[in-house]
Design a protein that fits this description.
The complex is a heterodimer of chains A (about 475) and B (about 450).
Chain A: E1 12-13, H1 20-28, E2 34-39, H2 42-56, E3 62-64, H3 69-74, H4 77-91, E4 95-100, H5 102-106, H6 111-121, E5 129-132, H7 141-156, E6 166-169, H8 175-187, E7 192-195, H9 220-224, E8 231-235, H10 245-253, E9 257-260, H11 266-281, H12 284-287, H13 298-319, E10 322-326, H14 329-341, E11 345-350, H15 357-368, E12 377-379, H16 384-391, E13 398-401, H17 406-412, E14 416-418, H18 436-472
Parallel strand pairs in A: 2-3, 2-4, 4-5, 6-7, 6-8, 8-9, 10-11, 10-13, 11-12, 13-14
Chain B: H1 3-6, E1 17-19, H2 44-52, E2 59-63, H3 66-71, E3 90-91, H4 96-101, H5 104-118, E4 122-127, H6 129-134, H7 138-149, E5 152-156, H8 165-180, E6 194-199, H9 205-216, E7 220-225, H10 230-233, E8 241-244, H11 247-261, E9 265-267, H12 273-285, H13 290-318, E10 322-327, H14 330-342, E11 346-352, H15 357-366, E12 372-375, H16 379-388, E13 393-396, H17 401-406, E14 410-413, H18 424-439
Parallel strand pairs in B: 2-3, 2-4, 4-5, 6-7, 6-8, 8-9, 10-11, 10-13, 11-12, 13-14
Antiparallel strand pairs in B: 1-12
Helix pairs in contact in B: 2-8, 5-7, 8-11, 12-13, 13-18, 14-15
The chains are: A alpha/beta (about 475), B alpha/beta (about 450).
The complex binds iron/sulfur cluster (SF4).
Iron/sulfur cluster sits at the interface of chains A and B.
Amino acid sequence: MKKQASNYRNVSENPCNMCMPLGGILAFKGIEGSMTVLHGSQGCATYMRRTISEHYEEPVDVASSSLNEKGTVFGGEDNLKKALENVRLIYNPQIIGVLTTCLAETIGEDIGRITSRYLQGQEITGLPIINVPTPGYGGSHSEGYWLTVYRIVCFLAEKTAKHNKVNVIVPHISTADLREIKRLLAAMGIDYTLLPDYTDTLDAPYSKPYQKSPAGGTKIEEIRKMSGARATLEMGITIDDAQSAGKYLRDEFGVPLFRVPLPVGIENTDLFFSTLKEIANYGTESAGMKSSGTDLPEEIKKARGRLLDGMFDSHKHNFEGQAVIFGEPEQVYAVTKLCLENGIKPAIMATGSRTKKIEQILQQEFDKLSDFDSEYSILGDTDFSHILEQCKNRKINIAIGHSEGKILTERAEIPLVRFGFPVIDRVGGQRILSVGYEGSLRFLDRITNTLLENKYKNYRANMFALFYEAKVR
Amino acid sequence: MDARKSNPAIEERKHSILTKGEQNQQLKCNTDSVAGCVSQRACVYCGARVVLNPITDAVHLVHGPIGCASYTWDIRGSLTSGADLFRFSFSTDLQEMDVIFGGEGKLTRAIDDLVEKYHPPLIFVYSTCIVGVIGDDLEAVCKAAAQKHGIEVIPVQSSGFIGSKSAGYKAACDALLRLIQVPQGEEIQKGNAINYLGEFNLAGELWIIKNYLQRVGIKLNVALTGDSSYKNLKKATKAYLNIVQCAGSMNYIASQMKELYDIPYLNISFIGIEDTSESIRKIARTFQDLEMMRRTEELIQAETAAILPQIAYYRSKLQGKKAAIYVGGGFKAISLIKQFGELGIDVVMVGTQTGRQEEYDTINNLVSKGTVIMDDTNPSELERFIMEKEADLLVGGVKERPLAYKMGIAFIDHNHDRKHPLSGYVGAVNFAREVYATVCSPVWKYREQGGEP
Ligand code: SF4
């Protein structure tokens, strides 16, 4: 049985998402030597820095044009120019991202004109300034993230000679996941350009002396050359086409595009590896290129076997799971698949994002399962009050998603497995691993153990109430 | 590496930084943040929200796009003894169409829905940046809604760009003044209880102080705004005296209440042993009751004696360490400097986001020569002076924490979602223990190594 709930509302109660520019900041954190300026009032930048800092436990320097009343009425050109100038002075960036906020968008600032006038006025060459329109009301932080990745590629990619690298475009995932993806690509012998790559900028090792602009990130040169790559592997099946950097590279430069979901769970990870193989063999004969990465290395095969072994070991426990899954679309999809593979019933799948794609894709997934006999709801553009309502009378015993889902534990006693962004009430949000065979198993173990913990915690009281008290009555 | 070279000074920031004993000019404060300087400041809306948020049974409705509400959901660790509606985050979640055609209709419908669902006695409607720009008439919408539902619906004029956080404090005070105003013609009856202003009941701090006051025989009327409700806020005018803790946010309403309702006010502080004792004395003195004064001295005696051995222990471990402070308000900075003094710690750098001129003067008098004082600073200045002054410890909020740790120094969270009280005698011990826990942690002995084994 299936069920779909409408999600129109006049008031949002307890949001499940953040606003667009936050995603843009995250994407820019993955570019080497980048600095971000938020064009708008001071508060936006401060909130977002605080949220990202809390999750990653990293200093996140983001400048603001600090628009005041005057700038709002007469235009913020002077403020933005001054912001750019000061950012250059303090941080000496190789690339600057200018993201707009609600305010700048509403007063209709022409960012492109302002930034190019700035560059001309100061006679600066070779400093890319990339503008991304990210009004807070334009979408959630995941749309902001994808749009920014897209704009970065559009701005930088230029016609180049063909080369053997594979573009790997990733959604917003933990730095542990990013690192694991890099490890897997290396194990497959694939030469790649990862975009964005914030493994080191948002999870920097302690070093002495302190680095104001942490080293790391995708090199600008590499992004320029993404146009000549062997193929693009875009980990994002929920991205709207208009925000797909992979699609842009295909349409503009003819780079073949392969779209895969996040490699979480057995099927998606299999798909990840088989796609890598396909890419490796793609057009090898005709182009005379040598194929890179053919067979799965032994260590990865073993990891796959261990995942299967672990899935069998815990399948009965997982069978008792009824899950509510929420967060950024790409992750909701990945977790849903993992649950389905392991007999955990996804009862509610929810995102605050406004993309319609996730709803369609999930629906297709369920349509494929002719024997799925449990009730489920798919909620897009939603909030926690709605999710909570849906949880009522549904015997949901596990929640999988970011920290704000703690409200489900507080108000409905549903235990929460923390995953995604933000994880701000526990340490190590950036270290949560869930991709690849190994990551999937670790993630699954956390889910299973949470189910078990909940069961053991309550079963004495439950059995007593169920049988002892019932008998005496 | 020379810290100064790696951090070019921004010309416009020059007068917002001074070193005690080296310059004589006044510190520049209470100005807009300089664009591009990565200020640590929040906005007007945030200032208003943090002040009003602890009112437990109110609906706090953010009229604006989702981000603003999202980042401030359950922003304070304020505790409640009653309703907990304040822990929810409500937003009109404005969309592009609302921005183009105006959001008044949606706001009206949002209020209708919330009244129907939660039956609150009171709704605050906060304006955000774009509401100020698209020109929704908050006043009119709130008035109509109040009439329709027979409850109070109070607009909070807190568009993000109209100033800094302190403008938000004022917006919150204006909203509170509307709430507590006495209907025309009604006589104000003064009781013998006192109001406690600028106290937000973080980790139960209000309850700790209330308990001290009770023991000397002083009754609390209502706190603004910790653990307060619509009903007891309505009695706010019936106080004998206002005591003001967070001066930054509440001095304005205190002076207004003096003018309108003839309620005098006292600035007090319950941060640190010295300030706590002095503050209880000051309050008790206003009652001119010898018996009460005796009980006050008794309480101070007993409480101090109970904690002194612990404080002495921590002091022996911390003597001679150096602290850097960067907090929201000047009031908190002042208390912290004194409290560090009680622990034998020297403050080598101190800054605030919204400090006022008088507060900076006080700070200047309290610190020793060579201490750097600054207004509205940023990460690169923090880094520079922490290095230059060789601080062992930074006090700040969430954004400053990773910076301190990345630099390999100790850190104290003095932000508003803390989970342990820092007020009163119990707070003084908690603070000392926290400083000890961080400064004397074994982890710092690996500080010099980085990645080299
Ligand atoms: S919703 Fe708009 S005004 Fe609010 S924080 Fe986001 S960008 Fe800023």
